[in-house]
Amino acid sequence: MADRPAFVYVTFIQATPERVWHALTDADVTAEYWAEHCNVSDWQVGSAWEHRRTDGSGIVDLVGTVLETLPPKRLVITRAGPNEERPGGPGRITFDIEPHGDIVRLTVTHENLTDHDEHVSVSAGWPSVLANLKTLLETGHVLPQGPWEMYAEMRAARMALNDPK
């Protein structure tokens, strides 16, 4: 995995490690800060997890396996699309939760990305999702707009500028 792109994001949250762990592993809470998805699993080593749409369709957009679980300190999962054959194997996401007084340092490491395009995608996605998570835990509600919408608008504007028409 060393020769494949990776992404690391660190944020600090005013919460206990237990609250952060709960927010990462409770399907109802994940539905709040992921907006249109929830993460579903029993979070035991070897178990499957699903990134399932919350619109009632039951559609699963991402799947993986729980590789390591050490509540409330560390969670490691694999990640890929359903039925996706990735030449280098699935992505690997590690959540490290470190307490410091009244705050937590949450480090998300997303390894084994397929290419530059996936790196660009997760580089926009993780900060947006984690900003929503942080806001939810600190204020009781998510951000008033989905932060990922800003990235989509900026990307569309950049593409329009580069359009030779």
From TrEMBL:
Stored Pfam families: AHSA1
CDD domains in UniProt: SRPBCC_CalC_Aha1-like_GntR-HTH (cd08893)
Domain (Activator of Hsp90 ATPase homologue 1/2-like C-terminal) ranges: 15-138
InterPro entries according to UniProt: ASHA1/2-like_C, START-like_dom_sf
Family: Belongs to the AHA1 family.
Name recorded for this polypeptide: Uncharacterized protein YndB with AHSA1/START domain
Organism expressing this protein natively: Nonomuraea endophytica
Lineage of producing organism: Bacteria, Bacillati, Actinomycetota, Actinomycetes, Streptosporangiales
